Amino acid sequence: MTEELSFAGDIVDARQDHAAVRLADGRVLVTGGAQDVHHDLPLVESAEIYDPATRSFVATGSMLQYRFGHDLTLLPDGSVLVTGIVSTDALLAERYTP
Where exactly are the structural domains of the chain? Predict the structure, then answer.
């Protein structure tokens, strides 16, 4: 098997220092980050789903809190626990349900 990179589709929101997790159905949840961490551009609260079958990204519900450098954990029920760095300390964790 030869490993190679190929075009996977255009992401909805440009982002760096984001998080991603593979969902139970094979799609990938991508959350948060910043538009450009080197130039202090805005943090991103949006989330999107990548579907490898269609090679496309689609927007999904936004997070309740801007986050970057955070963690996503797939839970046994198929939901995702979102934890880690936030722009304020008002909300320490949240849960995404596909």
Answer: 19-96
